[in-house]
Write a structure and sequence with these properties.
The complex is a heterodimer of chains A (301) and B (238). Chain A has 12 helices and 2 strands. With 301 residues, chain A is mainly α. Chain A has a domain of 207 residues. Classes of the chains: A mainly alpha (301), B alpha/beta (238).
């Protein structure tokens, strides 16, 4: 088989496109795991919820509020969906996760897993499992761009650029700012940070809200590419957890880099041996677990 | 330097504290006046660290009364207790390894006006300035202890709770710490010191509380220290 530069690059670019979703989702999981010590299993369902906020905002919100001509447009959805899901996350943290803080973090995992099943179940009951198309892709992002080696859809390029901005922006805030220093300190020793006068419980609530808002943001970005379906989150989250395991739980930059790389590896595998492309990440996960159980970027503790 | 001359800074009444099932403090009563330096002496495991942690609300369960400047603090969440004007230096120093020296310094919230500025702190600890962009735990043990002290000087706290600050440090650093505490006392700051190094404590403190198995066994003012040496040795098991 001949591997032309063009075929490889085009698959790698499409892989990168998947990779930014892995990155943004595993970043949210890493931030949440760092401060809350919870494996947030509901992350995939909230990603799906973000996509539905965009979809329903476009198709159903207008008639619902008695203004049939009103459609929540794509740009507004990019703001509204993270807000809605972030607020929901804040409610979940305050009402449920907070009560589990004294216990083993297994309970947090079980609780969020249960929530994921409930949310997915409710949506499966009301919406089409095989997916609905989201037709509100802005005109400005229609068409393709010539990258030299391929014509690349403009929308996918936008997704890559904005996702990278959000990921590295989040990294910058956490690793390089004063606000981030509270977060890092709270990850290390929350009790002492409290003793220094910082309202750690509030910080935890807002961090959870931000982490799940990222998932919803990714959901809106995904809506015009993939069809919006109740199971889109559970399909995505399995791969994302493998990414998290490979990168190492809790490392911010590690989760971003691993997400991007594995997306590209997946794309590359599609060229070399397509049937393996959906399993290659899990193969890597097995190898990494055997060689370095804390993950590529994980810290030994 | 004790008694009614001072405004009361800290009053603990019938304090009980628990970790899980174990009952650590069995009714502690003590008071510390404004500007006083008071030590808590006792054997390891007597409950001295637990007293400091109870003040900060860092133990599982506690009962009784703790007033700071007349404010009841026993029901408050930890961050609000800190904002009453308390600086806490834990036994394990608590330097954050993912934060730079300067980030460590800037972490504790300013709780009252009148704390030292960053420039003043760097003037006092030139080593910390030199290494301000290093990660916190890259410092030597002595430097880490200086950092742990320095970062609560910024906050303007008027009551410092210092847990075993001389532990494991070279004599010259212990001496520096002694001078620092002298200076703080000169500024009218109230200090509660948990100390293993009795000579260090004896030079600095106005009064000594002896803690034994979760209760206050004795209180010895500075001027009665000499006449009580034998009793003290018995308490401390020296």
């Amino acid at each position: 088989m001949e591997l032309s530069f063009q075929t490889v690059m085009s698959q790698v670019m499409l892989g990168l496109n998947n990779g930014v979703f892995y990155a943004i989702l595993s970043l949210g999981l890493a931030v949440i795991f760092g401060l809350l010590n919870i494996v947030n299993f509901v992350h995939g369902a909230l990603y799906m919820l973000g996509a539905y906020v965009a979809l329903l905002g476009y198709t159903m919100l207008g008639p619902l509020i008695g203004k049939p001509d009103f459609h929540l447009n794509y740009w507004a959805a990019l703001i509204v969906a993270p807000l809605v899901v972030g607020l929901l996350g804040i409610g979940v943290e305050r009402a449920m996760l907070r009560r589990l803080r004294k216990f083993d973090h297994l309970y947090g995992l079980l609780l969020t897993f249960g929530l994921a099943l409930i949310i997915q179940g409710v949506f499966t009951n009301y919406f089409n499992v095989s997916g609905d198309a989201y037709d509100a892709k802005p005109e400005a992002l229609e068409g393709a761009v010539n990258l030299g080696f391929m014509l690349f859809p403009k929308y996918r390029l936008w997704v890559i650029v904005i996702s990278l901005l959000v990921c590295f922006g989040t990294w910058f805030v956490i690793e390089r700012t004063k606000l981030g220093s509270y977060l890092r300190a709270g990850t290390e020793n929350p009790e002492l940070v409290k003793a220094f006068g910082v309202n750690v419980p509030l910080m935890i609530t807002l961090t959870y809200g931000y982490g799940v808002a990222l998932a919803a943001f990714a959901g809106v970005l995904a809506a015009p590419i993939y069809s919006v379906s109740p199971v889109m989150g559970s399909e995505m989250i399995i791969t994302v957890f493998a990414v998290v395991v490979i990168g190492g739980m809790g490392s911010i930059m590690g989760s971003i880099i691993t997400g991007l790389l594995l997306g590209m590896v997946e794309g590359f595998t599609k060229v070399v041996y397509a049937p393996a492309s959906s399993t290659v990440i899990f193969l890597i996960m097995v190898v990494v677990l055997l060689v370095k159980p804390t993950g590529l970027f994980g810290r030994e503790s | 330097m004790n008694g009614p001359l001072h405004k009361e800074m800290l009053r603990i009444t019938d304090l009980h504290a628990f970790y899980e099932e174990s009952h650590i403090l069995h009714g502690i009563d003590l008071t510390v006046g404004e500007g006083e330096v008071v030590t808590l002496l006792g054997r390891n495991g007597a409950g001295r660290t637990t007293i400091l942690k109870s003040i900060m609300g860092l133990v599982g369960r506690r009962s009784g009364s703790i007033t700071i400047n007349g404010m009841e603090a026993i029901g408050m969440p930890t961050h609000r207790i800190a904002r009453l004007g308390i600086g806490y230096c834990p036994e394990e120093r608590g330097i954050f390894s993912s934060l730079t020296v300067e980030e460590n310094l800037l972490l504790p919230q300013v709780v009252k006006a009148g704390g030292m500025s960053l420039a003043e702190i760097y003037g006092m600890f030139p080593n910390l300035q030199e290494r301000r962009n290093s990660m916190g735990t890259r410092l030597s043990g002595g430097e880490q202890q200086m950092l742990a002290m320095a970062r609560i000087l910024r906050t303007g706290a008027r009551l410092l709770l210092l847990d075993e600050i001389t532990e494991g440090l070279a004599p010259v650093i212990v001496q520096t710490l002694g001078q620092l505490i002298g200076q703080l006392k000169g500024r009218g700051i109230t200090i509660v010191l948990v100390e293993q190094n009795f000579h260090f404590a004896a030079d600095l403190a106005d009064r000594h509380y002896v803690i034994d198995r979760g209760v206050i066994a004795d209180m010895i003012p500075r001027d009665e220290l000499a006449s009580n040496t034998e009793k003290l040795n018995q308490y401390l098991g020296v």
